[in-house]
Amino acid sequence: MKKTLQDAYRSISYNFKELLFFELAYRLLGLFIIFPLLRLLFEFSITLSGYSYITNQLLIDYALKPTTLILLFILLFVLALYVMIELIFLSIIFDYGYHDKNLSFKELIVLGLKKSYDVYKAYHIKVILPAFLFFIMVELLHIVGIAQTINLPNELIDVINNNLWLQLIFGFSVILGIFFFIETAFHVNFYTIEQLSPKEVIKESKVMLKKKRLEMMGEFILVNLLFNIILYVFYFLVILIVGYVISWIRGSAYALSAILTILYSVYSFVGFIATITLIPFNYALVSSWYYEGREKQGKVVSTIKKKKKIALNLTSKKSKLIVAGTLLLLLVINLSSVLTVIATPRAQLE
Q: What is the 3-state secondary structure (H, E, C) of the chain?
C-alpha cells in the first residue's frame, strides 16, 4: 500500500497547479452548464408527469412513469459523459506525473479535448459505463459524512427499510456494483492511454487483477475512510482555532454565538474542498494500481508524444461559431433556469 500511495502522490503533485486549475474550471463548467441542464431536465420530467410538484409521498409514483424513466436515462447519460471527460483529463495529468513530465494548462486542454473526442468516438458506452461506475462507487462511500454529495430522499429510504425484498435487491446491487467496479477499474486508463480494443482490455484487466481484487478493495475503502477522517480533523481544528481567537478577543458568550454562525460556512467550505478532491484523489489511487500492474508486466505505455507546437486558432470561422454557440448555450441554459425558478411559486420537490 505504501508504494500505491507514493505513486498516487507523485501523480497528483507533479502537475498539481494544472490539476487544481482543471478541477476548478471543470466544477465551474458543471455549475454553470451541466447542473443547470440537469435541473431543466428534472423540471421538465415533473411537468410531463402531470404533477405540479413532487412530495415524498408522490416520489415513487413519479419515478416509475415512462417519461420520467426516459428523462432519467438522458440525465444519467449527460452526467456520465461529464464524469468520463473528467477521468480522461485526469488520466493525462496523472500519466504525465507518473513519467515526471511537465504539462502546461494549455497543453492539457488541447490534449484532453482531443483525447476525449477520440476515446468516446472509438468506445462509446464501453468507456462511459466504467467511468460512471467509478463515480457511483466513490460517491457511495461518502453517502454520509462531510464529503457527502448524494442525498437519498427520506421516502425512498423508508420504502427500502420497510420492504425486505427491496433491501435484498439494494444490497445485491451494491455487491454487484463493487464487483464490476473492481473488474473495470483499469478500463478508462486502458482506453485513454493504450487505446486497446475492448477484448484486449478485458483480457489485460483479468491478468492485472489476479490475486489483487481483495487488496484493491481494502485499500479503496481504507483510503476513503482516512480521507473522511482528515476532513473532519481539519474541520474541527478550524472551528477550535476560530473559537479560541473569538473567545480571546470578545469573551466566551460571544464566541459561542459566533461559532454557531460560522459553523455552516466552514462546513460548506470543507465540503467544497471535498468535492474538488474526491474524484482526482480516488482516480489517482486507481491509476497507481494501473501503473503498478503494467510495471510488473513491463508494458508501461504513455500518452506523452513528441511535443508539437500547440496552437488554438480562435480566429477561424469555425472556431468563432463554436465559441459563439457555446456562449449562447450557456446563456440559454442559465436564463431558462432563472426563469423556471422565478415562475415556480413553490419548490417542486418537497
A: CHHHHHHHHHHHHHCHHHHHHHHHHHHHHHHHHHHHHHHHHHHHHHHHHCCCCECHHHHHHHHCCHHHHHHHHHHHHHHHHHHHHHHHHHHHHHHHHHCCCCCCHHHHHHHHHHHHHHHHHHHCHHHHHHHHHHHHHHHHHCCCCCCCCCCCCHHHHHHHHCCHHHHHHHHHHHHHHHHHHHHCCCHHHHHHHHCCCHHHHHHHHHHHHCCCHHHHHHHHHHHHHHHHHHHHHHHHHHHHHHHHHHHHHHCHHHHHHHHHHHHHHHHHHHHHHHHHHHHHHHHHHHHHHHHHHHHHHCCCCCCCCCCCCCCCCCCCHHHHHHHHHHHHHHHHHHHHHHHHHHHCCCCCEC
Using CA atoms, how far apart are residues 130 and 182, in angstroms rounded to an integer? 10
d(CA 99, CA 10): 9
Using pLDDT thresholds of 50, 70 and 90, give the confidence band for residue 277. confident
pTM exceeding the 0.85 threshold for the entire prediction:
no
In the chain, the N- to C-terminal Cα span, in Å, equals 45
- Kindly report which listed range (262-266, 281-285, 294-298, 327-331) carries the lowest average pLDDT score: 327-331
**Grid cell in block for residue 75:** 440525465
pLDDT tens for residues 41-89? 888 888 888 877 766 667 677 778 888 889 889 988 988 999 999 999 9
